[in-house]
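Attaching the record inline, Q. Sequence:
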Amino acid sequence: MFRLCNWGFALMTLTSMTIAQQTEANSPKPFGKTRSGQAVNLHTIGNGKLTALISEFGATLVQLHVADRQGKMDDVVLGWDDVSGYESDQNQYFGCTTGRVCNRIAKASFILDGKTHKLAVNNGPNHLHGGVTKSLSKVVWSVKPISNQHGQGLECSYTSPDGEEGYPGNLTVQVTYFVPKDQAVLKISYSAKTDQRTPVNLTNHSYFNLSGAGASTVLDHLLKLNADNYTPVDETLIPTGKIESVKDTPLDFRQPRKIGERIEQLVPTATLGYDHNFVLNAPQDGQDLRLAAELTDPKSGRLMRVLTTEPGVQFYSGNFLMGQTAKGGKSYAHQSAICLETQHFPDSVNQVNFPSTILEPGKEFSSSTEFHFSTVPAVK
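Structure, as predicted:
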């Protein structure tokens, strides 16, 4: 069982600060050392309406504080009190930057330019979230603070060498977290460049409960997904290549529905609940960002809107949360948080009819996702 250490105590002290104090305390704080002895820091950005804490390990969103309808701030993402938790076998990609290729690749291999590339087999017969030891979620990133008239943020950078986790090409990756001035908004921007053709598909893997991290369930939240279609999967959760309508299925969230309303229909299936890629509807009026999802907690009144440049979003209902004791001594019960992972479709590198994830030398991968927070009145 994971236990708190002195770094965890330091972080809990930070958690008890006011939001204003947190925003001022944006100098790096020690967050422990990796198993290999590498020191890791925790960085804070915010504006009084939203505060985010980001770890250099995995360019990970560790805490995210936003207000409820009464103005009370709370942390709404799952995580750990120091880096040892993120290296433990009880970590389930909490808040990390996921890649080089997020989600699944069938049979842990792909063919590119006539060459077969073998990857780690770490999810049944398949490859998941970039690998085992040197995926983007398991390395220490360089972090640089940024501040301008528009707000404050962090630029997280990492160079993945050719062959790391089986992927071709030297890949330079940058993830930027940014909090705009006077807005309860967190923007995450991704960019990458390569010297060889290689697949790239990046996302953030935060688990959300708008009642606060550690609340007993997320099944009472209302979810709306801006998706008329989804990608069906086989028994190992690899897409079949088809795109089908959500109509008359438990996957129809085109209007707000309680997450728990129809989830039992999916528990006997391979997904064990919700773990599906939704094909997002096209953005309106030629805009770059499209609405992906709206998540509402009727109890706290918190509303989160997710906007993205990506064509898909993976809705995962925390089916493998096991009651592990984590950040601040709180436990994470089965289906007590959800992920909304904006992405290209799973296994795109092996699916010719899906949007391509291949990055070309001389080109730049670019993607943006925004989390907008507000509140709704109580229902009388």
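The two ends are 43 Å apart (CA to CA). Residues 207-375 form a domain with the Beta-galactosidase; Chain A, domain 5 fold (CATH 2.70.98.10).

More tomorrow.
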